[in-house]
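Trying the structure run again after the queue cleared.
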Amino acid sequence: MPFPQARRTILLFSAAALLAACGGSTSPSSPTPTPLTPAQIQARYTAAATRYNQGEAQIAVTENAACDAASATVALGACQTALSAQRQLTIAYDNALRAIPFSGSAATDITHLLGDDAAVEKLLEQAATAPSITVIATLQQQIIPLLATAATDATALRAAIGLPAPA
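Done. Tokens:
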């Protein structure tokens, strides 16, 4: 019996050593994040906006063809897919912007932009699951002015971080 007792003691000491080695520290181990430079903020914003604009251009082609009741290529399924893609693109853009530490007037501008985008996202979700092109057209009458407001918000944000207005 001394052998199993020795094995148990070794296992207990091994477990204790492992816990001590992997255990948490009482002092914070992660360094305080370094603030981003204005150039870094501009670069991150520009990257997010570029991804959004490129995706939006592709989605708009399908949306214009499939969601317009007067179009020869109107198709509920394709329209819903395009609207869903636009919603996902907007969410990705907003998440990228949330990861940027804006300050000053830019912090106010981003709050406005994200609020307007949230309203757009909600309407896009409704449109993407709408039962008909007629319902989608009604929702688009609400979406279009909100998109214009969000674009104004984005222009204000660009100015606040030192970027020119989009061309």
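Confidence is low (pLDDT under 50) at residues 1-28. Worth checking whether this holds up in the mutant runs.
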